[in-house]
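FORM 7B: Structural annotation worksheet

SECTION A. Query
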Amino acid sequence: MLLPISKKLDFAAIQGLRILGAIAGISVIIGTLTLSFLASRPQHLPVKYKLTRNNYTFYLESANSPTELQKGLKYRSYLEGDRGMLFNLGKPYKNAGFWMYKVNFPLDIIFIHQGIVTKVVHNALPCPEQPCQIYTAPIATHVLELPSGKAKLTNIKIQDKLNFYQQQKSGYSDKI
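SECTION B. Predicted structure
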């Protein structure tokens, strides 16, 4: 039996849509898995600053963009003893808050406003799932995260002035 041409075209279109639907479904699944994988990868930012305090030097990555600030040190398995991350909040925040969600190791969290320490949190513990404790400070323009114990070791306390030096490729540095 012969089908009219329009029915043949309708049948072909339906078959084509089924194939495209399957391809689209597989693409959505693969895309979702890829995005999930990329979102849970640790970020490693370039070292842009250094802080020397009581004969200890820390080399600091700098988080500046909203994405970098949000990810911070999440998903990393460790942080070397002479490393840290400096978060540039971009403006002063009252009751600035940080948490340890998805951070895998304890940290010292130092809140800083215009170079002056406003609060020090010693040994903030990892928080694998919510709810997590939120650590706040009265005001901050920057937040420094160092391996746990380094704030005590270097005697960082409220009202201290911290000087960060920008690392340059030439080997010279400028104070910020």
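SECTION C. Observations
Residues 10 and 16 are 10 Å apart (CA to CA). The beta strands are 47-53, 56-63, 83-99, 107-113, 116-124, 134-147, 164-167, 173-175.

SECTION D. Sign-off
Analyst initials: ____
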